[in-house]
Design a protein that fits this description.
The structure holds two protein chains of two kinds. By secondary structure, chain A is mainly β. In chain A, 0% of the residues lie in helices and 56% in strands. Chain A has strands spanning 4-7, 10-13, 19-29, 34-39, 46-50, 54-55, 63-76, 86-92, 98-100, 104-108. The mean pLDDT of chain A is 95. Chain B is an all-beta fold. Chain B has no helices and eleven strands. Chain B has strands at residues 3-7, 10-12, 18-25, 34-40, 44-51, 58-60, 68-73, 78-83, 92-99, 105-108, 112-116. In chain B, the strands form two sheets. In chain B, strands 2, 4, 5, 6, 9, 10 and 11 form a seven-stranded mixed β-sheet that branches. In chain B, strands 1-3-8-7 form a four-stranded antiparallel β-sheet, with no helix packed on it. In chain B, a hairpin with a 6-residue loop joins strand 5 (44-51) and strand 6 (58-60). The model of chain B has no long low-confidence stretch (mean pLDDT 97). The chains are: A mainly beta, B mainly beta. The A-B interface holds A 32-33, 35, 37, 43-47, 50-51, 54, 56, 88, 90, 92, 96-100, 102-103 and B 35, 37, 44-47, 50, 59, 61-62, 95, 100, 102-111.
């Protein structure tokens, strides 16, 4: 099973600052099958990025994704108030097929 | 507009059963792989099960294999999860989710809470 480890666990930043979130896999992941989600309290996760670097429909361009192999990054170039949330990475690969990271909380400093 | 609406959650005793439903609208279920994903404070987001477009292929997380059964009725545009022999550790919010072209979950329902407790 591929384990995804996200860091940091919590990121304390101010609006307007840049956020860099890391997702590290225990084995190589196809970049085609790496996705990122945003989740706010009481809501379902929302797809942000897929294929490591492709923004989902309606996602603003301040969100970008990069990486390959075992190291992937989600960057929010300038934090807006609505960006404070929990972010998860997810991969598809060998059994059990789909796994998630434990999440990074981006909180207001 | 794509919508997924789960129902069927609730409180059930250990060893009991529950059947979750996910009604899809705004798209044809028959064109997509579909999933159940659950979330608890202890375990976070965990993929539970998937079914291919016509239901002929399914897979399960080891933690639910032999106890849960995923199925679909494409004519009714509805996905199901039959959960038997429920355990306390199955307590979670259960989401149905649609698969995108890169095996991502491109649309999610609002979730339904399952609580297993005596």
């Amino acid at each position: 099973e591929i384990v995804l480890t996200q860091s940091p666990g919590t990121l304390s930043l101010s609006p307007g600052e840049r956020a860099t979130l890391s997702c590290r896999a225990s084995q190589s992941v196809s970049s085609s099958y790496l996705a990122w989600y945003q989740q706010k309290p009481g809501q379902a996760p929302r797809l942000l990025m897929y294929g490591a670097s492709i923004r989902a429909n309606g996602i603003p361009d301040r969100f970008s994704g990069s990486g390959s192999g075992t190291d992937f990054t989600l960057t929010i170039s300038r934090l807006e108030p609505e960006d404070f949330a929990v972010y998860y990475c997810q991969q598809y690969g060998s059994s059990p097929g789909w796994t998630f990271g434990q999440g990074t909380k981006v909180e207001i400093k | 507009e794509v919508q997924l609406v789960e129902s069927g959650g609730g409180l059930v005793q250990p060893g009991g059963s529950l059947r979750l439903s996910c009604a899809a609208s705004g798209f044809s279920l028959s064109n997509y792989w579909m999933h159940w994903v659950r979330q608890s404070p202890e375990k976070g987001l965990v993929w539970v099960s998937h079914t291919n477009s016509d239901g002929s292929g399914t897979s399960y997380a080891d933690s639910v294999k032999g106890r849960f059964t995923i199925s679909r009725d494409n004519a009714k545009n509805t996905l199901y999860l039959q959960m038997n022999s429920l355990r306390a550790e199955d307590t979670a919010v259960y989401y149905c989710a649609r698969t995108g072209g890169y095996f991502e979950f491109d649309n999610w329902g609002q979730g339904t809470l399952v609580t297993v407790s005596s």
